[in-house]
Amino acid sequence: MIDTKALRQKILDMAIKGELVPQDPTDEPASVLLVRIRAEKQRLIKEGKIKKDKLDSVIFKGDDNRHYENLPNGWVVCSLSTIANIFNGDSINEQEKHQKYFGRTEGYNYIGTKDVNYDHSINYENGIKIPYITNLKIAHKGAPLLCIEGGNAGKKIGKLNEDVCFGNKLCAFENYGINSQYLFYFLQSSDFIKIFRQNTQGIIGGVSINTIKALPFRLPPLNEQERIAKNVDLLLSQIDIIEQNQTGIETLYDELKKRTLDLAIQGKLVPQDENDEPASVLLEKIRA
Fold it and tell me: What is the DSSP string of the chain?
């Protein structure tokens, strides 16, 4: 059987290292993309939509004054806060949920950690809706949601297909003009998971928003991000097919195994031989 879980991880890890798709020397380098991102952030700051970040546009370099690792041509490494507005949601106690927000027919769906599944799907219809006019934080369609606190920290992640309000143990990543699917896949890579776990603190286990903002992010040229995302989408969909087929094969194998055992104990698996010593004689030997 193919270890599809390991195969998925291998694809994601190759993707964020620039090993999955060929590079195009004509692609605009990521350093130019960063200039546009800075300009967009300045505009949003002036409009009061985001706050100025101390880690803005920091590019990580090693002791030799070169970017971390052997990055592919045109790539840069920057802090996550350089490319995304990162924020957690709001806590609502259970009593308030049921008194004020349960059973509404309109509003933003409220997503808690329990609503984000290990397969990256999100349960939107949990019965809790927040009125459209609200002071609660809103994460918008396309943003990844990552669990950053508790036993599921770093393990649960989904990508929104609608605007939502969400819990304080979840963290939203609203990017500034990069490919959202590439960011979603980056947050599932072994390198990110490793550094996330290294920064986990506290009794219940968690990583602070400020720490997450400072974590390094591999930024490819925008065109390459799009090629990477499309290839990962294709490969993961093919793995889904493999898993479905393997499930069918395993089900068939289990059924055949059960059927074989049933036939064996019924004496129907092999032909009988009239010359065989009967079991009654065997029993006499056993008694003796």
Answer: ---HHHHHHHHHHHHTTT-SS---TTSPPHHHHHHHHHHHHHHHHHTTSS---TTTT-B-B-TTSSBSS-PPTT-EEEEHHHHEEEEE-----HHHIIIIIBT-SSSEEEE-GGGB-TTS-B---SSBEE-SS-SS-EEPTT-EEEE-BSTTTTT-EEE-SS-EEE-TTEEEEEESSS-HHHHHHHTTSHHHHHHHHHT-BTTTTB--HHHHHHSEEEE--HHHHHHHHHHHHHHHHHHHHHHHHHHHHHHHHHHHHHHHHHHHHTT-SS---TTSPPHHHHHHHHH-
